[in-house]
Structures are given as structure tokens and as C-alpha cells.
Sequence to fold (87 residues):
Amino acid sequence: MSFTEQAGQVRDRLDDRRRAALGKGIAVLAQDPFLDVSGAVSAAGDDRTVRLTQSIPVEYTVGPDRLPIFVVEVLDDEDIVITDAEV
Fold:
């Protein structure tokens, strides 16, 4: 498992709870990178995206003997323009 510099910076800013959740999610991905809840973002299907937790989506590439993580995002309710309750 490896992280791009950008993804690693986001990972490093996570609090302990979220970092632990990210670690658990990555462990699941390492066992099966083609989870039913993941989606292909490339025609070949090896570039994929999945939400590891409700607030942590990642984008990754499946390759021989490696699974680089390219994008880690953190979705917080604090940065929403219009909440579901306001709709």
C-alpha cells in the first residue's frame, strides 16, 4: 500500500479515530480491491473509487502486487453549502 504525496498529506491530518477507520478500510481493500461497493473510474476498471467510511472516499489503482492510493478526501458536514435538512 502506498500513498501519493497529496493523499498522504490528507491521511496525516486525520484525527486518531478517522486514521484508524482509514486503516481498517485499506486493510479490507487490500484483501479485495474489487469490492461490490467500489466503482471503476477507468475503462479498464483498474482505477477505482470507494467510500471507506461515510466521510472518507478514496481513489486507487489496482496493480500487480500493489495498491497505490491516489486520492483521500475527508467529507465534513461543516463545509456543506446546503444541508439535506434545508432542502
